[in-house]
Amino acid sequence: MTRRVVVALLTPVTWSPPGVDLAKWRAALAEDVVDLLAMLAEAEPAIAARPEDRALAEAIAWPGMRLYDVPTATVLPVLKAAAGDGFDQAAVIAADAADVPGMILGKLLRPLTTKPVAVAPGGAEGLLGVAARLPVPDWFPDADLDTATPMGLRKPAPNPSDVQSTPDWRRIRGPGDLATLDPALEGWENTRTLLGG
């Protein structure tokens, strides 16, 4: 049986809605992502954090959830940590996509049956997440989810088709993203509460 882990990466958050404390906002977004990961049926959940974010990771983790200490908020250290834990596949998800549906994460993992890497765009810029077979291919570059693109990850691949794009989902990084939150979608309870809804 294939062992999979989906890791919420505590990426920097630089914007919060007017009147909402930035630290509380970041924690609410991340907690909603972690809560979703904890409910996934065919993958283990985990959190990856830089040393300065370890306290936040511990505060939002479910009991027994894996915590990976990484030097940078980028993808490659997380994938290597997951490989070191014996996983066959791993996905790294930005922890600011509070209302991402589990189906989107499933679609990110699905191509790994035939492709070494899959990427989900994160709306207007950056990526929602990256998934890879482990150990991660030697050609795979480190990637910052805030700035990486599917094209940039395809460039070093032996064959561009080695990196499969999957459906995108926007992250909550500014007023425009906030306006797209769908109250009808389940989940994102912490973010919803902080917004007064």
Q: What is the share of helical residues?
A: 25-40%
Query: For the CA atoms, what is the radius of gyration?
Result: 16 Å
Instruction: State mean pLDDT (0 to 100 scale).
Output: 96
Beta-strand segment tally: 7
- Low-confidence runs of at least 5 consecutive residues: none
By DSSP (H or I, 4+ residues per run), the number of helices equals 7
- Euclidean distance between termini CA atoms: 41 Å
Let me know the largest β-sheet: 7 strands, mixed
Topology order in helix (H) and strand (E) letters:
EHEHEHEHEEHEHH
Please state how the strands of the largest beta sheet are arranged side by side.
Answer: 3-2-1-4-6-5-7
Helix and strand content put the structural class at: alpha/beta
CA-based shape: globular
User: Proportion of β residues?
Assistant: 15-25%
Structure explained in plain terms:
- By secondary structure, the protein is an alpha/beta fold.
- Helices cover 29% and strands 19% of the residues.
- A 7-stranded mixed β-sheet has the order 3-2-1-4-6-5-7, sandwiched between helices.
- A hairpin with a 5-residue loop joins β5 and β6.
- The mean pLDDT is 96.
